[in-house]
T20D4.11-like domain-containing protein (Caenorhabditis brenneri), 283 residues
Amino acid sequence: MQNLNHILFVLILSLLSAECSILSFHRNLLGDGSEECFEKFFMAVINEKHECSNDFEFLTVSSLMLTVSNISRCSQKNVEKKHDAYTSGKSCVLDIMSSECSKERSTFLEENYNLLINLLTERPKDNITCSAPFFELEAIECKAQKHALQLEMQEQTGEKETHDGAVKVLAMCKETQACMRDSCKFTDVERDEIENSCDVLELTTSDFTVCMNKINKEKPDLSKYECLNDHDFYSKDSTVICERWKNKRDCMRRVTEDICGEDVMKHDEKSLNAFLNNLKCEE
């Protein structure tokens, strides 16, 4: 009986010790310098700064095209993919963290790597409070994606702007939108803002925009369109632009169809409305 009590005591002590170890890791994981370290790690992966990261899916997999019926199944699949990536890509993760983070922080994460994998890839079943480290790390990843998006948008401004560049920015925006949508750390306002940004970016890569660029470049004679009388088509003034696309939309449909050979506005109504909202056109 005494031996049994001793065994139970040792077992309970070991369980308590393990639990204390995990709690200690949780506290230290998000301590001083941690957020900066993880953001640098995610930024390095996003920007493909380290070649080894190309072989692993360390980031949240985009699920924008999912239907409501299969979203939970695919979310679980994404988590499984991330777990596999962080398991098989351990040396790559540690190399990146060693390069991007302080020595103290990278050493701590290396020593506790198995616990780190669990926190990065195992979504808590009870996320009512949204306080678990998983959600903190998920939010840091989303912020890194948003930061990378902002930097890429700055890179693509002015003379450097290209159609391929705009397509790349749109893809990054969609990935950021997916990350923020699935994270409980962001407000509806923040989600709406990124959605509106993606809608506008989608417009810039559309057939509609290609057509408008053609018109602005070639500047054809538009005098035959009576619906454009007393209207400066080439004005950059936001008030004039709002007037053009809100009150002369049927007219603009004829113009673009004649010059570009197709009804480029047909499939871009949503993006066009987002563009007008961004200009803050009055109703």
Summary: DSSP finds 13 helices and no strands in the chain. The chain has three domains: 31-126, 141-205, 220-278.
